[in-house]
Design a protein that fits this description.
- By secondary structure, this protein is α/β, with parallel strands linked by helices.
- The chain has two domains: 210 residues, Spore Coat Polysaccharide Biosynthesis Protein SpsA, Chain A; 97 residues, no CATH class.
- Helices cover 47% and strands 16% of the residues.
- The protein is built from twelve helices and eleven strands.
- It has an eight-stranded mixed beta sheet with strand order 3-2-1-4-9-6-10-8, sandwiched between helices.
- It is globular and about 60 Å long.
C-alpha cells in the first residue's frame, strides 16, 4: 500500500493548527496510509504541544520537526527530506480540510497518472467565519489567491500553483526544491514556473476543498505585502522568468495622489458605501507596500554584494 505524506509548515498558528490536524483524522474515501509532517519554523507558541496532543488522538502517523526561523521554503524542504510517501500533499497551517479533500487529490492522481501530474484544490473562507468587506474583496482579488478565476476548469496555469493545497510526486520536489532565499510569498509560484518548464501539468479538482481559517485585516495584510515584496525581489533575482510572469506593480504619481486623497476621506467613503473607491484605495496601498518591501530587499542585497566585493578585493 502506498503512502501519502502531508506536509504542513507552520509558524505561530498553534490555535488553528490543532483543528487542521483533527480535520485530517476524518477524511473519507482514503484507502492508503497517511503520514502528517508538521514543520515548525521556530514558533514561539505551544505548537509542539498541540502536535503531540493531536498525534496521541490520531490514527495517522503525525511527525513533528522544528527548525530555526528560516521561512516557509526551508520548512517545506525539510519536510520533503523526511517524507516517506510516494506522493506529497502540501497544506497551509490554517487550512481545515473538508472530508473529501485528501480523496480528491488521490483520485485525480489516479485519473492523471503521469509522473509529472500536479493536483490543486480550492481554498475559500469557511461558512462559520465572519467575513467583512475587506476579506470579501480579497477573495476576489489576486492579492491572496485567485481561485475565483478557476471555476469550471480542469487544467490550469502554473501561475496558480498554490502550496496551501497542492499535491505532486515527492521525487519531483526532491529534484526541484523550494528556493530558500524566498522566505514567504511567491516561493510556490517560482517553483511552479520551474515545473512548467519541465512539462509538468497542473490539474484543478474543485472537490478537494479546504477552508481558510485566517481572519484578514487591512493593516496586517499590508504588512504582509511588504514581506511578500521582499520575497518577490529574490524570486526575480534568482529566476529571471519570474520578472515576466510576476511583475512589480506600476504606480503613477496620479494614482498615488488619488490613493492619498481616498485615505484622507476613508471614513466618509465607508459611510457612503463607496466600494469602488475603497477597493481602489486598498489596491494601491497594497501595491505600495509590496514595492517598499521589494526596494528594501534590493538595497540590502546590493550593500551585501558590494561588501563581498570589497572583501575580495582586499585579499592578497
Amino acid at each position: 500500500m502506498k503512502m501519502l505524506s502531508i506536509i504542513i509548515p507552520t509558524f505561530r498558528k498553534a490555535r488553528i493548527l490543532g483543528n487542521v490536524l483533527r480535520s485530517l483524522c476524518f477524511q473519507e474515501g482514503v484507502n492508503q496510509e497517511l503520514e502528517i509532517i508538521v514543520v515548525d519554523d521556530g514558533s514561539p507558541d505551544d505548537t509542539e504541544e498541540v502536535v503531540e496532543s493531536a498525534a496521541r488522538a490520531s490514527s495517522n502517523r503525525i511527525r513533528y520537526l522544528k527548525q530555526a526561523n528560516r521561512g516557509v521554503s526551508a520548512a517545506r524542504n525539510l519536510g520533503i527530506q523526511a517524507a516517506r510517501g510516494d506522493l506529497v500533499l502540501f497544506l497551509g497551517d490554517d487550512i481545515v480540510c473538508t472530508p473529501r479533500l485528501v480523496a480528491g487529490h488521490l483520485l485525480w492522481h489516479k485519473r492523471f497518472s503521469d509522473s509529472r501530474t500536479v493536483v490543486s484544490g480550492p481554498v475559500t473562507w469557511p461558512p462559520d467565519l465572519p467575513i467583512d468587506d475587506f476579506m470579501s474583496w480579497l477573495d476576489n482579488s489576486p492579492y491572496q489567491f485567485a481561485y475565483y478565476k478557476l471555476k469550471g476548469k480542469t487544467e490550469i496555469s502554473f501561475r496558480y500553483f498554490y502550496t496551501c493545497n497542492v499535491s505532486l510526486r515527492t521525487q519531483s520536489v526532491l529534484e526541484n526544491p523550494f528556493d530558500e532565499d524566498i522566505r514567504y510569498g511567491f516561493e510556490d509560484t517560482e517553483l511552479g514556473l520551474r515545473l512548467r518548464d519541465q512539462q509538468y501539468r497542473l490539474y484543478f479538482n474543485e472537490s478537494a476543498l479546504g477552508y481558510h481559517y485566517h481572519i484578514r485585516k487591512f493593516k496586517a495584510f499590508r504588512h504582509r505585502q511588504k514581506m511578500v515584496g521582499v520575497s518577490l525581489y529574490y524570486a526575480h533575482r534568482n529566476n529571471p522568468k519570474m520578472r515576466i510572469s510576476c511583475k512589480t506593480p506600476e504606480i503613477s504619481l496620479t494614482r498615488h495622489a488619488r490613493a492619498v486623497l481616498r485615505g484622507a476621506f476613508f471614513p466618509l467613503l465607508k459611510a457612503l458605501n463607496q466600494r469602488r473607491m475603497i477597493h481602489k484605495y486598498w489596491q494601491v496601498r497594497l501595491d505600495l507596500a509590496l514595492l517598499r518591501g521589494y526596494r528594501a530587499a534590493e538595497r540590502v542585497d546590493r550593500r551585501s554584494h558590494h561588501g563581498i566585493l570589497r572583501r575580495e578585493e582586499l585579499r592578497p
